[in-house]
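Give me structure tokens for this 118-residue protein.
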Amino acid sequence: YQRRVHGTLSECLFFFVFMSHSILLVQATSHPATKAYHDFDTLSLALDGVCRLFEVELKRKYPNQRDITYDITDLLAFIDGHHDMSCLVFGNDLQAYRPYGREWLKERVYQHLRKQAM
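Here you go.
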């Protein structure tokens, strides 16, 4: 990690949150065998990973459709449809992972996609 000495508070928060190693924890159903984890170098990549998981599911559901479109409500329903979906984000200040739940993850995915659309 680079150490940032100058910058605004929001720039520093972006650096320490979005540039932090993240582990996405996913459990599709209540059955323990459906537990999985995906690790990413940054939170931003983890949020992209949530979208990719949804897109893979859409391709599985609709294998004969070449183009599939969805909106944010579909993606949020996908997240809600899981038994559990949460994220562990490495905090440089603690030198440990901070746990974040489904609602936090949904808000971050929404913000992430909104920034990409601008």
